[in-house]
Amino acid sequence: MSNKDVNGEDNPLNNNEGRAAENNNDASGEKDVCIKKHSGLSRLSKIRTAAFFISLFLCLTVVFAFSFIIPCPERPISEKTWSVQHNNSVGYPFLATEDVNKDYVQDVLFIFKTDNASGFNVSCVDEGFQSPCFFLSALSGINGSALWVRPVSDGDVHLVDCSIHNLGGVDSLGCLVIRKSGFILAVDSRTGHTLWEKPTGFPAESAVIQPVLKISDVDKDGVEDIMVFLFVENELQSAIFSGQNGDHIGQRWRIGTEQPSGYYTHVTKSKAQYVLFYKGGSIVAYSVSELSSHTAGPEAKQLSTVQDSDWEAHRNITAECISLIAPSSSGKILHILNVPGRYYNNILVVKSEVSELLDGQKFETLWTVNTTNILSKPALGYFNKDVLSIMMEVETDGNKKKVFIVDSRSGAIQWEIELNLGIARQNPAVLNTGDHRSTFLFWGMHPPDSNNSELEENLFMFHPVQQNALLQLNNHTENIILFTAALFERSRHSCYILITGPNTTEDPGTLTISKRKLKEAIGIGKILWFGTEEVNTEKIRDDYFRIRYSSH
């Protein structure tokens, strides 16, 4: 064995070094490439690291700025209760809530008649009206301050509606006022400014049927239009006005010869829309798309006809309408309500003797309930979780009233109570709660204590969590023109609103618009217990106080 081989076996490292030395010239180029690659990767890694820390620093700076330096927007603090008075005024049966000034708190819209509104630096003369005249006003939901006040009519008005989207092309709700003097006025609910004003062309003896109907864009100008129903010269007619500028579209269309007591709009399973006119014990329906086509006439673009096959199967070819209930049906129809069902909407027909729920597609009676001497328009809420119920009020013998809640699926009575009747004829109000049920508010008179000889008319509050208890919120002696309940902020600040004072048939006096937070009323309210066992009434009050409300 050579010395070379022995050295290689005894010291393999030396052997490798020798081989490396032999190939040194060949590998020198590759080593330069590797060194350059490692150097490039090292620089790239440093750049990435620097970029990461710079980004982290910027993020922390932004978080710090928003958390400590830039102040958060102040949340408006609403007063628990406020009250506004107008002297020498009368009220009008219109009340609405809407976030007028976009502060995320609902505001109050109402209309009243007075000889002047000098306290608001506005008068009837500003619009060329004689005094007294009607003023439309928006009050801040936070404190009751006037956001705007403006005169809208020097004579009586047919209707006021402040729920019309995109009126005049403005991206908000607008108010529509139809005067008996023959003009239709659109008002921006944010400012009170006029969007447009046009003559209606209605004869002086016309009777406009409330409310107005919002329809699809007939004239294709990008804004939904408005259909108005009126009874004139022994004819029921329809008219269409442009939501963009108030122009009259087409001509008035003759629908029939009967003057209805009112109407209701129903959307079928196939999303077809029908208008249901009711009078006496009968209901007749017309397709909205068909009415639009006839009324708009050749001036409008070609309109597509949307109809429902189930409904059209009941069409009376001679009368050109759909008959839902025969005139011989028991009782006079007072109200029609939409009641959501499992797959489509059903129709609650409230009559003076017996009310019934009709299947919204097949017109079959699902259930009936005795409503002899019904006192108010029913209210929809939730007695059980996620199961729709209906609150009704009927007059009973001995100057009393029965308030009861009906299961919308079966017609079974879920809860009822009897109170003294009183003089208030206000509809019940409902506020949904976070436990998927509802709080019900209604008026009545409770028998007085033995040491009190007078009866007090009160607003009562009921929640299904305490089925044997009522909360008596407050008593009122003034004439109540309107009452409603609303959430003034999303899922919070539940309130009730009252307009009290003289109405349009009485002499002018003090008109009061007031808001009270429910929790404020609960704190001073009285618990009425109707169960047989003894209970801690303060615990019940605490249960009411802890109720959380929901916007849905």
Strand content: 35-45%
Mean pLDDT equals 86
Please indicate the count of domains.
Answer: 3
Major β-sheet, in short? Answer: 7 strands, antiparallel
The amount of helix comes to 10-25%
Question: Which helices and strands occur, and which strands form pairs?
Answer:
Layout: H1 3-10, H2 12-22, H3 24-69, E1 81-98, E2 107-114, E3 133-139, E4 146-153, E5 157-165, E6 173-179, E7 183-188, E8 194-199, E9 207-215, E10 225-232, E11 235-241, E12 248-256, E13 262-267, E14 273-279, E15 282-287, H4 288-296, H5 309-312, E16 315-316, E17 321-325, E18 333-340, E19 345-351, E20 354-358, E21 365-370, E22 379-384, E23 387-396, E24 400-407, E25 413-420, E26 429-432, E27 438-446, E28 456-462, E29 469-475, E30 480-489, E31 492-500, E32 509-517, H6 518-524, E33 526-529, H7 537-545
Antiparallel strand pairs: 1-2, 1-32, 2-3, 3-4, 5-6, 6-7, 7-8, 9-10, 10-11, 11-12, 13-14, 14-15, 15-17, 16-17, 18-19, 19-20, 20-21, 22-23, 23-24, 24-25, 26-27, 27-28, 28-29, 29-33, 30-31, 31-32
Helix pairs in contact: 1-2
Q: Could you explain how this protein is built, in words?
A:
The protein has helices at residues 3-10, 12-22, 24-69, 288-296, 309-312, 518-524, 537-545; strands at 81-98, 107-114, 133-139, 146-153, 157-165, 173-179, 183-188, 194-199, 207-215, 225-232, 235-241, 248-256, 262-267, 273-279, 282-287, 315-316, 321-325, 333-340, 345-351, 354-358, 365-370, 379-384, 387-396, 400-407, 413-420, 429-432, 438-446, 456-462, 469-475, 480-489, 492-500, 509-517, 526-529. The chain has 552 residues and is an alpha+beta fold. Helix 1 crosses helix 2. The longest helix is centred in the N-terminal third of the chain and has 46 residues, at 24-69. It is globular and about 85 Å long. It starts with a helix and ends in a 7-residue tail after the last helix.
